[in-house]
Amino acid sequence: MMILKKYVLFMFLKVYLLTVTGLIGIYLIIDFFERVDEFMAKNAPLIDLVSYYVYKIPFIAGYMAPQSVLLATVITLASLARQNEFTAMKACGISVTGITFPILGASVFISFLVLASSEYIAPITTQKMNYIFLSKVRENLNYGKIPQNNLWLKAKDHSIWSINSFDPKKSILKKVIILIPDKDYSISQRIDAQSAIWSVDKWYFIDGYVRHFDLKGLVSTEYFESRSFPVSETPTDFAKVSKLPEEMSLTEMYTTIQVQTQEGKDTSQKWIDLHRSLSYPFISIVLALLAIPLSLRSSRHGGLLFCVGVNLAMGFVFSFLYALSISLGRGGTFDPIMAAWGPNLLFTALGFYLLLTMDSEKAFPI
């Protein structure tokens, strides 16, 4: 029995590697013909063109993983059924679950590999890829830059900073306003300064004044030439490079959400991005769970092409509903968890139902 499971696993992995390699190759070829004109128009070095597509592979591999698992599952099971190997295994007393367990196990392993890549590999390579294309080819001056003008920030101590400009190299702020709230969130102090300079471990505010307030209004105004105040922010808090969602690891996305929540910003879209990045790798498991009963059932009524067609149709339906659910989440109709995980749970339940009704002769038993 163990030998047969290894045989099924080896067959699945072989087909999966061929499938994912083929899909990556097709994607790269199509993308090459779409973008090569821009590289040539800018006289970009050949090394940049090659590096761009090398860095793009981890992103494409993660994106194509569910489709590759679906096709590998269909082809593996349809091949076993066509050669009557599946029937022979059942005759030896191996259940459908036992035969297909290696496929599901491999799908789980692939899902966690994609998840690990989303955390440790894909963000780095995607950032390098975008730097080549957006910064060097398209010459987008704003890409990957630290925001330096008209900054607003809600600090860790709940004070609100307004900064006209920030010099990250010299750690200098220009035209700074800081609103410091009291326990009841009413403004107790306002600090205005022409500039602020970071020295050693504190900010020194230059040429400004501080006003104190109570519930009745202004209490006092103090002018200063140079003065330090006990504030929580450091230059690092201002020197954060703006990243695209696909350039951020899962940890970075979660940390950004926590910081922006403290700053009082709306983070609903970022929660959608985070849950989408978490749920997408597990689509491989969902599609494998759907493909197993669909492949075995459809193999009774047609050949390999029929099996592939049935499963691709189901994969298309899932992809459409997944994209629709994400769109509804971005629009506020669904909360982020429902938007990203709802289709996975729905089609997982459908997959288990089809497995439990394997003996039915109907294509979709009701």
How would you describe the overall organization of this protein?
The chain is α+β, with helices and mostly antiparallel strands and 366 residues long. Strand 5 and strand 6 form a beta hairpin. The protein has 11 helices and 6 strands. It has 2 domains: 221 residues, no CATH class; 90 residues, Lipopolysaccharide (LPS) transport protein A like domain (lipopolysaccharide transport protein A fold, Sandwich). The mean pLDDT is 87. Strands 1-2-3-4-5-6 form a 6-stranded antiparallel β-sheet, with no helix packed on it. Helix 1 packs parallel to helix 4 and helix 4 runs antiparallel to helix 9.
The run of helices and strands is HHHHHEEEEEEHHHHHH
Unreliable stretches, pLDDT < 50, 5 or more residues? Answer: none
Helix content: 55-70%
Strand arrangement, major sheet: 1-2-3-4-5-6
Q: Compute the number of strand runs.
A: 6
Overall, the morphology is: elongated
**Amino- and carboxy-terminal Cα gap:** 33 Å
Mean pLDDT: 87
- Beta-strand proportion: 15-25%
Number of separate helices: 11
Radius of gyration: 28 Å
How many structural domains? 2
Structural class: alpha+beta
Taking the sheet with the most strands, its summary is: 6 strands, antiparallel
